Amino acid sequence: MNNFLYPIVNPKSIAFFGASNRFSSMGTNQLNSVLDLGFEGNIYPVHPKEESVLGLKAYKRAADLPEIPDLAVMVLPTGVVPQVMEECGRKGIKHAVVVSGGFKEVGGEGPELEKKLLAMANRYGIRFLGPNCLGVANPHHKFNVTFLPFEGRPGFIGFASQSGSFITQMFGYLRRYDIGFSTGISVGNEADVDIVDAMEYLAACPHTRAIGLYIETIRRGRAFIDMARSIVPHKPIVAYYVGGSEAGQQASLSHTAALAGPDGLYDGVFRQSGIIRAHTIPELFDFCWVLGACPRPAGNRVIIQTHSGGPGAAAADAGSRTGLVLAKLSRPTREKLSPLVPSTGSMTNPIDLTFSKNPQDYFSVIPDILLEEGNCDGLLAYFLAPGSIIRRTMTSMGIAPDQIPQLTEKIFDDQAKSMAGLITRHQKPLIGYTFQSHEEFYIQKLLQHGVPVFPSPERAARAMAALVCYARLVERIKSILPVALSTPGPGTNS
Hints:
single chain; six-stranded parallel beta sheet; seven-stranded mixed beta sheet; 42% helix; disordered C terminus; alpha/beta; Rossmann fold; 2 domains; 20 strands
């Protein structure tokens, strides 16, 4: 990939400044994070006193390193960071992550110290993240330099954040839904690399299918809009902005020295850019998830499939408040459904199947019919399949207890695989919702096979609406810049 951030996100070797054998220190914890994920390159701890750090040979200074590392990571007292940056420059190191805080975000002498740091980096041609950041997490490269150990698996959501802890806190959140991410980039104070640079990298990243942004300010407004417009036709972007309120502005200023702006201003920037705005952190993750996992819908007409009236009505109500409309079923579709829907059910959208049907119909035949409907742009499906019921039924049938777990797993795996196959076959989004725990075995299987399942009809409906919004944004952005966007860039999906 021809991008200056590539060696920062995918280093082959690291010089680590600030780790020691004192296990409670932040630098030591961050080096442990690198080791825990199994980083496969060379790691060179730099420490003025220690002979070894965490079992790795240590070096007194940058000049002593046996090679020129791709990346320097600095978790050091603020006052020595410019000096260490100079030492790295003299060694020939061209990329750095400056985790250390205490720069312009704290006021006083901080802004001048940050200017000194930037001047030193510029003198030697060093590009760096930070200061006041947590760096990078890239599970595809087995590289995590953040404070927390990585949880989860590699995936397709790329994040760029002006908050360091936001990157780490997404680890557990995404793991809960079996969602992986491609790369997390913490830009901190943006003395050098900023959110626009991070967007450019994620646009070219072959592992990234959807981009999420945590924003406290946009320093290069025109560049931000132009970059987003060039990306959106090929990869969706979702942004969560804080700072629109007086309290948010104050928090942003003390956090990364960001100069936040009015909420309405950022609404306009996002609309011009083709970016979908999330108003909550769960929305940010939800939207990125479905935008990366599901095909774009042709319109806003949805069918709701349920086997209980209440969850179906809740989804219909939530959908109407997000701009979705209930699709009208054609006569051929109704004729296909007629022998499959019991008299106690309903073929009026929402399609209520009650509890008396063959499960195979519910998980395969019926959704296949619904997605084939020409008036349907997407399917919302309510899932209720407790493993306890399956196991009880098998016990009543006289199946040996030691065979039940394996049979249950096969049933749920086959059903989930069937549902996932429908998304590919029809190229329409299928989004589930459930009131069950995401620890329920069947829900886990759906997630593993790539079917998004949300814990409420409201979140499922908003996620479907985000897909509709993205489809419309793509067409609008293409009409604005038809020539420049005729061909996807490297590493994009169109």
